[in-house]
Amino acid sequence: MTLDIAHRLKNRANDVEKALTDALLPRAGEAAIAKLQDAMAYGLTGGGKRMRPFLVLETATLFGAESKAMDAAVALEMIHAYSLVHDDLPAMDDADLRRGKPSVHKAYDEAIAVLVGDGLLTQAFTVLSGYEPGIAAPLVKELAEAAGMIGMVGGQMMDLYPEGHDEEHIIALQAKKTGALIECAATMGCIVGGASADETAALRLYARKLGLAFQIADDLLDVTVTAEEAGKPVGRDEGQGKATFVSLLSEEGARQRLQSLNDEAAAALASVDQDTSVLEALLAWQASRTH
Ligand code: GRG
After folding, report:
1. How far apart are CA 209 and CA 228, in angstroms?
2. 0.90 exceeded by the pTM?
3. Which DSSP string do the residues of 2-15 spell out, in sequence order?
4. Does the beta carbon of 99 lie inside 6 Å of ligand 1?
5. Rounded CA gap, 69 and 189, in Å?
6. Which of 134, 153, 31 lies closest to 83, judged by CA?
7. What distance in angstroms lies between residue 86's CA and the mean position of ligand 1's atoms?
8. DSSP-based helix, strand, coil % in the chain, nearest 5
9. Three-class SS of residue 138?
10. What is the pLDDT of residues 201-224, one digit of tens each?
């Protein structure tokens, strides 16, 4: 039977959506906290491709640990959603639209959007604390490092205060800003699944290549689709004079780089004994995504 990756992503996304909704229940008795929870749910649910949770679930599935992986997937998506909510704030990217609907600070207000990000960031670690200690500790370390100063937040800082506009700088920045959470997704799946050090290294390498390819696809979409298709503002990097893979390599060059990264990611899977066809299919799906 041929693998329908779009269908598999959709099914996983539906399961993740339900788990994310449940993770913010029950609503508190205090009206203010219930309102915060509503705003957190607004930023967390009702959209998104759920590629990072997909990667957690599929990596864990390689090692027969699918049933244990949803909480790790939820925690990671909470971090991702927080980053989008904060990134959209006027002090950051100042974007009014996210996933085709008003950004959290537009639907609520700026102070609530800051608290929504804070709430999601911290709730992610509450979710991980439910794992048995031998798994919870490495998951917490992995997610905290990927999200924090040497990971995504560090990458955001490098983007705000660039020390260069050349390819080397953009690769280093994006490996942290976008890549760290994607690498973390595969690693969390490995931790939950009890993968060996070699298997984890191979899947990390796969995810590192995928993360960079993901950013290149994002840069290409930024210059090829409308804001309506993207569900968020497009073409802003060029307006702000920010270097992207497209401005550095040209559209054609960026497409070629994306393809070589996909080839390298597929090669990294070769040393994993399990059936990695879903992870391989994800590469092609990601490269041709439309939002
Ligand atoms: C602490 C104030 C404050 C801000 C932090 C951490 C941060 C701001 C920003 C993170 C960096 C960021 C938003 C990177 C963008 C990565 C990216 C391409 C996101 C879009 O991911 P998709 O396409 O989105 O997976 P969906 O909507 O599908 O989930």
Report:
1. 28
2. yes
3. ---HHHHHHHHHHH
4. yes
5. 7
6. 153
7. 8
8. 75, 0, 25
9. helix
10. 999 999 999 999 999 999 999 999
Q: Are 169 and 163 in contact (CB under 8 A)?
A: yes
Query: Taking residues 140-156, what's their average pLDDT?
Result: 98
Q: Which position has the token pair 């790790």?
A: 72
* Angle (nearest 5°) at CA 204 between 143 and 162: 70
Domains of the chain with CATH codes: 5-288 (1.10.600.10)
- Around 41, how many Cα atoms within 13 Å sit in the side-chain half-sphere? 16
How far, in Å, are 10, 76, 177, 182 from residue 162 at the CA level? Answer: 37, 27, 13, 22
Ligand 1 atom at shortest distance from the alpha carbon of 47? 27
Ligand 1 pocket residue status of 276, Cβ below 6 Å:
no
The amino acid sitting at 124 is: A
The DSSP letter of residue 66 is G
